[in-house]
Amino acid sequence: MTGYVADAVFGDPRKWHPVAGFGRAAQALEQRVYADSKVRGAAYTAACAGTVTGLGVAAQFLTRKRPFARFALTAASTWVVLGGKGLAAEGTRMAHLLDDGDLPGARRRLSHLCARDATGLDTEQLARATTESIAENTSDAVVAPLLWGAVAGIPGLLGYRALNTLDAMVGYRSPKYANFGWASARTDDLANLVPSRVGAALTVASAPLAGGFAKPAFRIWRRDGKRHPSPNAGQVEAAFAGALGIKLGGTNSYGGRTERRGVLGDGREPEPVDVRRAVRLSRAVGLAALAVAVVVSR
């Protein structure tokens, strides 16, 4: 809980962010070991995530008889792996830019949320991309780390964040990473299998707190959650679409590669106001996930 509060108050550490440091180290290792090979990619994933998880195991072991040290390390680890405040801040910035009609600024800013090609996106498409990113990252950067921390302590927090970071670095579909990034992508899918569905359920439960609708959220989640190419992202995105009464999914472009996804929801196209609603819903889901994590950890 202390780590969650620290993230809510301070956001990401401004200097020497451990996740950024891990990313730089992983990138340096990739430059040394990269090959268009699933085996090489699996070894890379195991080395990176295994090292970080091992540090978490060591920290957990060394503090087994030191409750205050265990508390402090758990709180610090929770703080650095969560991304709730940063996610809300980016969503709010996008809403401001869209409200002001600053499409060039919004297109540039979208890169802070996702790797989607924003060239030529209009207001509705930018609002959709932002809302989808808020939904997916609510699961990846808030719900999942809280649940992994509750179940597996410091190793769970650090190991999960390492896997999620590797997926963002090499796990996307491209000619370069189709094989090398396969293990990172599949391991991240496995790590998010349960949290994504818990996140969708919490979206349903939290929808009324953010001015949304629980019944459509549940219906769209169960009907459309599998239409997304990811086994996990579609769960929360579909629940968000139903809760907010909007339509998500469709055609996206990533680095020259076009991806046609199933449509999630029956509502209208997203508008800038829906980005703000998605931010409120994300915060409500985060609080609900914290409550679940507290119960699970006892």
From TrEMBL:
One GO MF term attached to the UniProt entry: threonine-phosphate decarboxylase activity
GO CC field: plasma membrane
Subcellular location: Cell membrane
Keyword Membrane listed: yes
InterPro entries per record: Cobalamin_biosynth_CobD/CbiB
Pfam families given in the database record: CobD_Cbib
Pathway: Cofactor biosynthesis; adenosylcobalamin biosynthesis
A GO biological process held by the record: cobalamin biosynthetic process
Source taxon at top rank: Bacteria
Keyword Transmembrane part of the UniProt annotation: yes
Alphabetic keyword roster: Cell membrane, Cobalamin biosynthesis, Membrane, Transmembrane, Transmembrane helix
Mode of membrane association: Multi-pass membrane protein
Family matches, as PANTHER family: COBALAMIN BIOSYNTHESIS PROTEIN CBIB
Family designation: Belongs to the CobD/CbiB family.
Function statement: Converts cobyric acid to cobinamide by the addition of aminopropanol on the F carboxylic group.
Protein name in UniProt: Cobalamin biosynthesis protein CobD
Annotated organism of origin: Amycolatopsis keratiniphila
Lineage, broadest ranks: Bacteria, Bacillati, Actinomycetota, Actinomycetes, Pseudonocardiales
Gene: cobD
